[in-house]
Amino acid sequence: MAASSSRVMLGPLVAAIDQGTSSTRFLVFNAKTAELLSHHQVEINQSFPKEGWVEEDPKEILQSVYECMERTCEKLTQLNVDISNIKAIGVTNQRETTLVWDKETGEPLYNAIVWLDLRTQSTVERLINKTPGRNKNHLKHKTGLPISTYFSAVKLRWLMDNVDEVAEAVLTHRAMFGTVDSWLIWCLTGGKSGGVHCTDVTNASRTMLFNIHTLDWDPELCKYFDIPMEILPKVRSSSEIYGLMVSPHCLCVNGLCLQCLGDQSAALVGQMCFQEGQTACLLKVVLIYLFNCYLLQPVMSEHGLLTTVAYKLGRDKPACYALEGSVAIAGAVVRWLKDNLGIIQTSTELEKLAASVGTSYGCYFVPAFSGLYAPYWEPSARGIICGLTQFTNKSHLAFAALEAVCFQTREILDAMNQDSGIPLTQLQVDGGMTSNRLLMQLQADILCIPVVKPSMPETTALGAAMAAGAAEGVSVWSLRPEDLSEVTSEKFEPQINPEESEFRYARWKKAVQRAMNWETTEPISNGNGETSIFSSVPLGFYILGSMLMLIGAKYIAGQCPL
């Protein structure tokens, strides 16, 4: 982007911190035109201490934010853009990922437990077992959520039960809990020297501790999980000033206003989904989200979807709700094919590989690496590849991986159509995976409806910037429909007949059933906190059977000497 004199007089700018599962970005937008002026991105490392465990370093997350801010400001200065025109910063973040830190030292007490972590599977099983009728939806009337490893309350409960530093900090009233937004805002507004401990309604609604009707922490839910309310952040709206930046690392943004919005809700705002029935699909680097917006009243799903707070765009504004379908593994399939199997070197190579054959040749891939989320909520499922023949090669597997993303979206869309009773006529998409044109076409083919991709793919960060710029006291971005900029887009029309689509979808559903009930939901500990090999039912039966045969053989040999 060349520097020019016209860029000097851009008017108000608004920035966004987009802290996701795999990377952090800082982006700056023109508040009048919604044009993206500059950005910088830093990848985040994940650690896997045990099978099913996923963690990230809170300090690395914070440092990545500082680095992105500094590099972006440098780029803007090179473009002759006056960075003093940045009026506010919106934070959008990976939801559910859980942190606890010491408010006196400012130090994290453990790594961040990432949303797709499965270590709380036995905790979830115990909680479900004590509910009437072993009902995983026992809390849904208040939370809109099933009892699942996905949400923050069970992760926090695990930290309190298994990490001595966390338990001690809770007892001595030094502990602070939060999702990534709370951690970042607390640090960026001063940390132990007066940092603001807060979250917004969209992130709070993903904890299982928040009542989506009263829009506040629920004492009965906190008692159910035995979590003290004093460690929880204050809940705010998604568009108001929380505090001012205080950063010794990046002086160019000091004094700016901060607010936050969960990443998927930010994308709803960025795609301007402000009307009842509008639907947006987010094809993220890690997972799929599909939202169907409802206004003012939460609608409870009867088909495996979540009821969540979509946004609350102002302190005195009403909350808006959405039905949400979440799929744990989508774009992460690409990383798995690259890092674990080594059949591709880059994500763009996957598209070329799949396009070279144009079919999976009957191969179906269910990437249930962390169980199945919506609409099944089945933690015992595991990944499966089926329909293999001697003819199957890596190109067919690449195609099957892309199809898996589309089939999972179709399952959620079917559930939404059943809940709403109004079939969707087109799907708006966003996220890193939308750059894959083959995937976009496959999605239209599998859904049998057009797929609409915005020409500006950064709608998640844009939504966070819009909410920040619209906050009372900032007011540089209007969210009135007549003031919103027209977003250009590209439309992908279905190119196969519905009969073929239905046939392929039916085969996919058959593969999903094969992936079910692969693992027990309650691992057996060996006494040292390690999971026993007998937590896998098939493996347990195999080993037990083998032991019995060996004992029997030894006994027979003793009875019948040569």
Automatic annotation (TrEMBL):
<dbReference type="InterPro" id="IPR018484">
    <property type="entry name" value="FGGY_N"/>
</dbReference>
<dbReference type="Pfam" id="PF02782">
    <property type="entry name" value="FGGY_C"/>
</dbReference>
<dbReference type="GO" id="GO:0005524">
    <property type="term" value="F:ATP binding"/>
</dbReference>
<keyword id="KW-0963">Cytoplasm</keyword>
<comment type="similarity">
    <text>Belongs to the FGGY kinase family.</text>
</comment>
<keyword id="KW-0418">Kinase</keyword>
<keyword id="KW-0547">Nucleotide-binding</keyword>
<dbReference type="InterPro" id="IPR042018">
    <property type="entry name" value="GK1-3_metazoan-type"/>
</dbReference>
<dbReference type="GO" id="GO:0006641">
    <property type="term" value="P:triglyceride metabolic process"/>
</dbReference>
<dbReference type="InterPro" id="IPR000577">
    <property type="entry name" value="Carb_kinase_FGGY"/>
</dbReference>
<dbReference type="InterPro" id="IPR018485">
    <property type="entry name" value="FGGY_C"/>
</dbReference>
<keyword id="KW-0496">Mitochondrion</keyword>
<keyword id="KW-0067">ATP-binding</keyword>
<dbReference type="GO" id="GO:0046167">
    <property type="term" value="P:glycerol-3-phosphate biosynthetic process"/>
</dbReference>
<comment type="pathway">
    <text>Polyol metabolism; glycerol degradation via glycerol kinase pathway; sn-glycerol 3-phosphate from glycerol: step 1/1.</text>
</comment>
<keyword id="KW-1000">Mitochondrion outer membrane</keyword>
<protein>
    <recommendedName>
        <fullName>glycerol kinase</fullName>
        <ecNumber>2.7.1.30</ecNumber>
    </recommendedName>
</protein>
<dbReference type="GO" id="GO:0005741">
    <property type="term" value="C:mitochondrial outer membrane"/>
</dbReference>
<dbReference type="GO" id="GO:0004370">
    <property type="term" value="F:glycerol kinase activity"/>
</dbReference>
<keyword id="KW-0808">Transferase</keyword>
<dbReference type="InterPro" id="IPR018483">
    <property type="entry name" value="Carb_kinase_FGGY_CS"/>
</dbReference>
<dbReference type="GO" id="GO:0019563">
    <property type="term" value="P:glycerol catabolic process"/>
</dbReference>
<keyword id="KW-0319">Glycerol metabolism</keyword>
<dbReference type="Pfam" id="PF00370">
    <property type="entry name" value="FGGY_N"/>
</dbReference>
<dbReference type="InterPro" id="IPR005999">
    <property type="entry name" value="Glycerol_kin"/>
</dbReference>
<keyword id="KW-0472">Membrane</keyword>
<feature type="domain" description="Carbohydrate kinase FGGY N-terminal">
    <location>
        <begin position="14"/>
        <end position="270"/>
    </location>
</feature>
<dbReference type="InterPro" id="IPR043129">
    <property type="entry name" value="ATPase_NBD"/>
</dbReference>
<feature type="domain" description="Carbohydrate kinase FGGY C-terminal">
    <location>
        <begin position="297"/>
        <end position="471"/>
    </location>
</feature>
